[in-house]
Structures are given as structure tokens and as C-alpha cells.
Amino acid sequence: MADHRQCSLAAVGLLFFTGGLVGAAVALVLAPQSGRESREEIRQYARKAEGSLHDLTDSAGDVMAQAMDKGREFIKEKQRS
User: Which residues 6+ apart lie within 8 Å of 40 measured at CB?
Assistant: First the structure.
């Protein structure tokens, strides 16, 4: 049950992150500034988003590793019984 909640939290985090990207892209397109300034803002945002995405994938990998460990422990316990 706890693993299911963790996956749901990861999904919500990913959806929140994606919504932020879409919102930022729309804001930049509609912003009253020069193309050069907009491109620089997009580059900066992309760098930040890349870091956030790496953090998210690392945390998803950790959750998956924990789930696999628990699964292995469960199988070992059932084999002993």
C-alpha cells in the first residue's frame, strides 16, 4: 500500500512539473520582450528543468530499488515458509 502511494506521489510530481513547463512556455511566448531575451530565459529555464528532471528520475529510481528489495525479501520469506 505504501509503495502505491509513493508511485502516486511521483506521478503527481511529474504532472506538476509538466504543468509548470507548459505554463512557463506559454508565459514566455506571450511576454512583451525581445526574442533574444525570451531565448535566454528559455535557456535558463531549460537548465533548471533539466536539474529538476534528474532529481525526479533519481528519486523514482530509489523508490523502484526499495520496492525491488521488499519484493525480494517477501519472496525469501515465502520460500522459507
Answer: none
Q: Is-contact 49 21, C-beta < 8 A?
A: yes
Domain spans, the chain = 2-80
Contact 24, 45 (CB under 8 A): yes
Residue 40 in 3-state DSSP?
helix
Residue 21 one-letter amino acid: L
Predicted confidence (pLDDT) per residue in 8-54, tens digit: 777 777 788 888 888 877 877 787 878 788 788 878 888 888 888 88
Q: Give the dihedral of Cα atoms 20, 21, 26, 32; nearest 10 deg.
A: 90
- The alpha helices in the chain, defined as continuous H runs, are 2-30, 35-80
Q: Phi, psi at residue 31, to the nearest 5°?
A: -70, 140
